[in-house]
Amino acid sequence: MHSDPAAVKKTVRGYLMVGAALLVFTAITVAANQLHFAVPVAITVALVIATMKGSMVAAVFMHLSHEKKWIYGALLLTLVFFIVLMCVPMFTLMDGIGTPAAAVGGEHPGH
Amino acid sequence: MNIPYTVDERPDTGLTNGKLGIWLFLASEVMLFGALFSTYIILRVGAPEWPHGELNIWLGAINTIILISSSVTMVMAWASLKMNDWGKHRLFLISTFLLAALFLVNKYFEYSAHFATGELPSHSTFLAIYYTLTGLHGLHILGGMIVMAYLLGPGAKMWKENSDQFANRIEATGLYWHFVDLVWIFLFPVLYLL
């Protein structure tokens, strides 16, 4: 984190450049949507662009490109739990709970 | 008794308490929105069909542009303060506040159009998760506006008493605001485009 005025002044141009880049990426996201890709391709394109935009906000606006190790440590721990959270939907698909019996191995006799 | 390490950095962490605190708060926010995104995936994967084109892409895109612009003005408000330009700081912070208000006005018109056609949260699974995610995000916008209003109003006098602590408060507000922008960057394609 810069604290002296001269160092901060140098970063201002970077903030404006990133802001412009974010607007361009937004336009690309909307334009790509108008091309009507197949759903898997559309999801991949939209999420890749969103991840790039999110990374720019975090790295430049939130100054994560040059932060202290305690903050990186806290965010790394958060990332681990976030990935587990995103995997929860897969666990629900694997356990078969809520799936009709016929879909997971045939109907049970007597039911 | 003064709260320690509001301006000076703690020798062990190299951070002020406020800065570490706002980052831990944001970490908890990641888990809050993460849980809702996870719920969205479960609902979408389990749904026999998922609606497309129910939302106005252009309104969503305009709101994305508004929030990105507000992030730029927010970081410029902090930078101006660091460069000891109080006038520009006020200008950029007021701009951020107005852009946030514009986002909510836009959202109001969007919600109103849905309500007018009977598209309430109970209408479909998609609308239920749409209102939940955007409603929670909207509350975060409102929360940010309340903090900005305080820093523009009664909280501004701290600049004369303790300029470093005031700059730290603007920085913490900025971190929160950029996070709210970051969440919308993912909400927009997930809800409006896919």
CATH class placement of chain B:
Mainly Alpha
| Tally of contiguous helical segments of chain A | 4
Structural class of chain B: mainly alpha
Classify the helix fraction of chain B into a percent range. Answer: over 70%
Q: Keyphrases for this structure?
A:
heterodimer, A: about 110 residues, mainly alpha, 2 domains, about 75% helix, about 0% strand, B: about 190 residues, Four Helix Bundle (Hemerythrin (Met), subunit A), elongated
Molecular structure report:
The complex is a heterodimer of chains A (111) and B (194). Chain A is mainly α and 111 residues long. Chain A folds into 2 domains: 1-67; 69-111. Helices cover 77% and strands 0% of the residues of chain A. Chain A is flat. Chain A starts with a helix and ends in a 6-residue tail after the last helix. The mean pLDDT of chain B is 94. In chain B, 77% of the residues lie in helices and 0% in strands. Chain B is elongated and about 60 Å long. With 194 residues, chain B is mainly alpha-helical. Chain B has one domain (17-193): Cytochrome c oxidase, subunit III, four-helix bundle (Four Helix Bundle (Hemerythrin (Met), subunit A), Up-down Bundle). The chains are: A mainly alpha (111), B mainly alpha (194). Chains A and B meet through α1, α2 and α3 of A and α1, α2 and α6 of B.
Question: What's the short version?
Answer:
The complex is a heterodimer of chains A (111) and B (194). Chain A has 111 residues and is mainly α.
Question: Secondary-structure map with pairings?
Answer:
The complex is a heterodimer of chains A (111) and B (194).
Chain A: H1 5-34, H2 39-61, H3 69-95, H4 101-105
Chain B: H1 17-46, H2 57-82, H3 86-116, H4 125-152, H5 158-161, H6 163-193
Helix pairs in contact in B: 1-4, 1-6, 2-3, 2-6, 3-4, 4-6
